[in-house]
Task: structure prediction
Amino acid sequence: MRRVSRIAVAGVATAAFAVTVSACGSSSTSSSSNDDKNLGLALAYDVGGKGDQSFNDAATAGMEKADKEFGYKSTAVEPQDGESDADKVQRLESLAKQGYNPVIGVGFAYAPAVKEAAAKYPKTTFGIVDDEQTKADNVADLVFSEEQASYLAGVAAAKATKSNVVGFIGGVDVPLIHKFEAGYKQGVADTKKGVTVKSQYLTETAAEGGFSSPDKGESAADGQIDAGADVVYAAAGLSGQGVIKAASANKIWAIGVDSDQYKQDALKAYKDAILTSAMKNVEGAVFTLAKSVEDGKPATGVVRGDLANGGVSLANSNPTFSGDKEIQDAVKKAEEGIKNGTITVKTS
Result:
């Protein structure tokens, strides 16, 4: 394993995501016959589904926290291969009709379906993760400044590389993932001159498996490693597992995404290769939306998580990373710059 030479703490707290709540009348309820009974919250998973060790699993953790705190019996529904927007609409409407509240589409692909279902069930609160274009009185757009955490990942990569070549692998070539790439590249460039960033997207569309194909991630990572990369950052959902596997096999560093992947059981065989993870607190966003409904003041509009409110952060679970002073100092300086406005992170 190519290791960083000195030991440090990342210096980025993973504070709970504090969601700003805007009142929207009394507590939302379903417009079905279950008007007086909220069954709990419902998740409609994005591609990759439960078990992706990333985005969807973070949402699941938020749901489980709400169940424990509020005595809910929530539910989650897996996506189907090749499904249409009409299929997504039917899924969301069925959940609302049964009496679940809030109903959350996990991923920007649900945006059209959330808009349509929310119009039919105005007494139910809907959430959409990673989309801020859906505007309705009963919709909360749960979005994040992914580029900020990715900038910190770039700082860490630039400090960790020995070959002066690092990689970025995006699951699907879409604007959301461009934010991860832009922040990462800027963080690398601002930290160490002369470092090359190799970028690759696995697919053009989600339907082609860019977020759900570990084999594609592994193959892409192998290619970047053959080209000299000794740190590879993946923003690719389930496909990122393949990137981490390749990093471990080649004894180089991987940087995880969305959740603290160093701590996940499914990746424990490879955890020593996971330098850190650029996290976004989907768990906190899901839980806080449920709490706002439970409190009778459903959140609506754009609800953004960033470095300042703990909505995004950099994990420091790997002791090799969390003990490296050189990395700690660089990450802390970058974090302070983003928070005080002296560093403006690009989104594209």
Summary: The CA atoms of residues 61 and 143 lie 17 Å apart.
